[in-house]
Amino acid sequence: VQLVESGGGSVQAGGSLRLSCTTSGFTFNGHNMGWFRQAPGNEREGVAVIGRRFGGILYADSVKGRFTISQDDAKNTVYLQMNSLKFEDTAMYYCAAGASGLSLVAKYFQYWGQGTQVTVS
Q1: How many CA atoms lie within 13 A of 94 on its CB side?
Q2: pLDDT one-digit tens code per residue, 18-52
Q3: Average pLDDT over every residue of 53-80
Q4: Are 26 and 1 in contact (CB under 8 A)?
Q5: Contact 45, 34 (CB under 8 A)
Q6: pLDDT, tens digit, for every residue of 69-104?
Q7: If you ran DSSP here, which 8-state letter would residue 63 be given?
């Protein structure tokens, strides 16, 4: 199983980034796909999740209206479009796959990527 994130970087406040997570080794359309983030000293928090088995999308309140999660089944890839970035969005962003119910809770995700750093100044 592999989940590989890309697209992170440094951006000024108000800017945009698009994160990508390319996956292999498991049934992509049989798992919910989520994005999480963790800043130094903070717990890992769910940002967005897209339900693959039964549909649905969840966003953390802090990113609603600014972030959009989407997927490309042909590429086994999930994306996170991040607009109007704020300093507090600075964190390591992780992609994850889970077979449980639609949730932003990390314990329901079985597979994880290594993360990509997003820095907003």
Answers
A1: 20
A2: 999 999 998 888 889 999 999 999 999 999 999 97
A3: 94
A4: yes
A5: no
A6: 999 999 999 999 999 999 999 999 999 999 887 899
A7: T
Other beta carbons less than 10 A from residue 54's beta carbon: 8
Per the listing, tokens 């693959």 go with 52
Task: Let me know the angle formed at the C-alpha of 85 by 79 and 87, rounded to the nearest 5 degrees.
Answer: 125
CA 37 – CA 59 distance, rounded (Å): 13
CA distances from 25 to 4, 28, 58, 64, 90 (A): 12, 8, 25, 31, 30
> Residues with Cβ < 8 Å from 89, sequence gap 6 or more?
37, 63, 82, 118, 120
Look at the block and give the residue holding tokens 């750093």.
117
What is the SS3 assignment for 13? coil
Write the single-letter amino acid at 18: R
Residue with tokens 């997927």: 71
The answer to whether 33 and 71 are in contact (CB under 8 A) is yes
> Of the candidates 9, 2, 6, 28, which has an alpha carbon nearest to the alpha carbon of residue 19?
6
Would you state the structure tokens that stand for residue 120, as one six-digit string? Answer: 């907003």
